[in-house]
Amino acid sequence: MNSKFSKYLLIVTLGLAGGSIYFLPYIKYVFYDAHIACMNISNTQSGLLMTAYTIANMILYIPGGIIADRVSTKKALIFSCLGTSALVFLYSFNMENFAISMLIWMGLAFSTGFVIWASLLKTIRIIGTEKEQGFLYGLYYSCNGIAATIINILAVYVFQTGIDMKAGYFRACIFGGFVPIVVSIILMVLLKDEDCIPSVEDGEPKFHMADVSQLLKNPVVWIISIIVFCGYGFYMSVSYFTPYLTEVVGISMVDSGFLSAIRTYLLLLLAPVGGLLVDKCFKSTSKWLCVSFVILSGLFGAVLLLPADINPQLASIYTLIPGALVMMSYGVITSIVSEVGIPKAMTGTVIGIISIVGYMPDSIYSIMFGNWMDKYEAGGYNLIFGFLALSGIIAAVLSFVVLKYSKKNKIKCSDSQLQDKSLPI
């Protein structure tokens, strides 16, 4: 893209798209009680909806990535936004039918994960140069978080206009269905097909189906998958500071909830800062991740050493530190793909492969950590934070492997010098 303003405006729009389409899949995190009551389901049934959604996503990640590399990104994004809206509206009028809701949640895997996930990340990589990948990915995640926050706040306001819980929940869902439609219109205006196609003049090869087997055989792709697994594990696990502060430290639920909102949403504003560190200081995503993961390992490990009588205010402030560093790391983690010589035309497929392993913490950590908390109560947090400290060391070592690989093969991160031969088989 020629204009910096247009480039950043498009990133903001993509962030809005990412923040809007996940309203329904994760609606229980905002309207949990209304979600259960209006659907007339149990907590277990609510969990089954997320299980169906997660499994369907895992099945669709690779084929979705392949399709993202072969179809128009603009059409994929618009189709996904409109498809999500249709499913939200369908749910709004059938929320008491659990069987239909299960089908809707599986359908959401098609509209929010199938093609759009890889298309979003691929577009971010294509519209910027290799020297600004960290900042652009960080900006996207920051905009994504801000958009989700604003949409959820507005949805809560709409919910309060209902005469009762059911009417309010219905209105909130209808509102959540209209937002992706608005986003799709904005994408029609701002996003051009040529902005999302790697330049042939820059030596970028076209995607071929044979490339899929090459990528699957590429060990670096799987190493990056584990790095993303650890990074996303950190991202989703900072939420465990919320019950830790109430059950172990002893602060009120209100104060803990306030701190949770800061860690979950406000600290996402630091994602572009992580991107600037990658682009301007470390000149490498893998080098930054080496450093940040080691620090995170120490920060989570230090929780085990906090005295039982620690000042609650001090403990509360401390939990914001790893939360901030997590956002500065996870927000740029996908930009590591540009370091290993994978052509832009294959980005969607690579994202699909990486996502299968990378986002497994959704289905693994929740069960494992929940079991530790149920079995050991307050002692379970020592296992949780100790496990996270160990995963940080593993992620740092693997990031160092990627860094050495990049240097050894003399991969130059610039649009004009990415070659097919950069991809080992």
UniProtKB/TrEMBL annotation:
This is Sugar phosphate permease. The chain crosses the membrane at residues 7-27, 47-64, 76-93, 99-122, 134-157, 169-191, 219-238, 258-277, 289-308, 314-333, 345-361, 381-403. GO terms for cellular component: plasma membrane. Residues 1-407 form the Major facilitator superfamily (MFS) profile domain. The keyword Membrane applies. Keywords: Cell membrane, Membrane, Transmembrane, Transmembrane helix, Transport. It is found in: Cell membrane. It comes from Dethiosulfatibacter aminovorans DSM 17477. The lineage of its organism: Bacteria, Bacillati, Bacillota, Tissierellia, Dethiosulfatibacter. SUPFAM superfamilies: MFS general substrate transporter. InterPro entries: MFS (IPR011701), MFS_dom (IPR020846), MFS_trans_sf (IPR036259), MFS_Transporters (IPR050171). PROSITE patterns: MFS. The keyword Transferase does not apply. It is a multi-pass membrane protein. GO terms for molecular function: transmembrane transporter activity.
